[in-house]
Each structure stands twice: as C-alpha cells, then as structure tokens.
Amino acid sequence: MLKGTLCTVRHLLAADLNDYIAKVNDLPSRGEFFSMQFKSPEAMRRDFMQTGFVSEDSELFLIEDLHQNIIGTITHFKSRTPAGREIGYRLFDQQRSGRGYTTEATRLLVNYLFMAYPYHRLELLMDPFNTASERIAQKCGFTQEGLMRQAFFINGAMHDVKMYSLLRHEWQANLAALQS
After folding, report:
1. Which of 57, 62, 69, 139 is the most exposed place for a label (fewest CB within 10 A)?
2. pLDDT digits (tens, 9 = 90+) for 81-130
3. Alpha-carbon distances of 1 from 8, 66, 67, rounded to whole Å
4. What are the extents of the domains in the chain?
5. pTM, full prediction
6. Is 126 exposed, middle or buried (0-12, 13-18, 19+ CB in 10 A)?
7. Residues 6 or more apart from 82 whose CB is under 8 A from it?
8. Overall fold of domain 2-179
C-alpha cells in the first residue's frame, strides 16, 4: 500500500470487485478521453481470480480517498520500450477532478516503480486536449516528447496522442531538489 496525504494507492481485493466492476462500466463517468467500450463483468472476475490484476505485463491499483472510498485506478504496464513502463490513470468521479488525487497517486506510483524496479523510463500518453492529464504529467516532472498521430481509437474515431516521459536520473534530480 502506498500512502499519501490525500490518497492511498493499493491493490484490488476480492471485497472491492463488485464496486470496481460497477465503476469501470459506468459510461457517464468516463468523460471524453476514455473509450466507451464495456468490459465483461465475468471476464473481469475471471481475470481477477487468476491474477488479481497483477502480472509481469501489468499491475492495477485502486486510488482511495482518506475515507477509504474507491475514487479511481492507476496502472502500469509494458511500454513500447524494453526498459520502460507506461502509466495510466482514471478518476471515477469527475467531481473530484482538480483536487490533486491523481497527481499524488502518480507521484506515489512513480516513486514505487523507480525504487522497486530497474525501469529507466516511465511514460504517460494522453489526448492532446486533455489539459488535466497534461498538468499531472508536468507536476510529476515528466517531459513532453512529441505527438503520435492517430495512434488511439476512442469513441469511434482515431485520435492523436501526446507522449510524456520521465527518466530515472530526472526523477532522482527531482527528489534531490525536494529534499534540499
């Protein structure tokens, strides 16, 4: 479990599964930047029973507020580069957007990944119009690298994707600056 001042990042438990499935499949909560594709509840239950949503390829965490309410998810998974991981996040309730939960959860996960694994590079990919996600990337020390043209299919159309990355030595420099 990763604890911050605003939220906790932890693995999904069997007791969370029904609530998690309902939140993941709540289409109105997805906003304009996420696919409207439903996920099969039975397939999610089967995957959870087999792996707990943790494997070498990916690891899913819940984001909880201080009252232990599940407010979102954050994951890391194989990226296109062998020494890196991609991070993805989603708040379930857009009323909580802009309050720092996702930024803190991202910082907690970044610290965990660089401290526990030999990854050299972390990536965040986002819609170019997703200014909230871009602010999270910038606050967490990520650098914009460029634009992948028409790389994601979301809600019936191909979309461009901005790529941000954070390298291990940049993370270390950010930590050193915060401690001084």
Report:
1. 57
2. 888 999 999 999 877 778 899 999 999 999 999 999 999 999 999 999 99
3. 7, 13, 15
4. 2-179
5. 0.90
6. buried
7. none
8. Aminopeptidase (3.40.630)
Alpha-helix residue ranges (DSSP H) falling in 33-144:
41-51, 101-116, 131-139
Instruction: Count the alpha carbons within 13 Å of 132 in the hemisphere toward its beta carbon.
Output: 15
Question: Closest Cα to residue 147, out of 167, 164, 135?
Answer: 164
What does the block give as tokens for 164?
A: 């941000």
Bridge partners, residue 118, by sequence: none
Amino acid present at 41? P
CA dist., res. 58 & res. 87, Å (int): 10
Measured between alpha carbons, how far is 116 from 106 in angstroms, rounded to an integer?
A: 15
The enclosing H or E element of 20 equals helix 17-24
pLDDT band at 12 (very low <50, low <70, confident <90, very high): very high
- Give every CB contact of residue 156 below 8 A, 6+ residues apart in sequence: none
Question: CB under 8 Å to 140, separation ≥6 — which residues?
Answer: 103, 106, 107, 110, 166
Mean pLDDT, the chain, whole residue set: 90
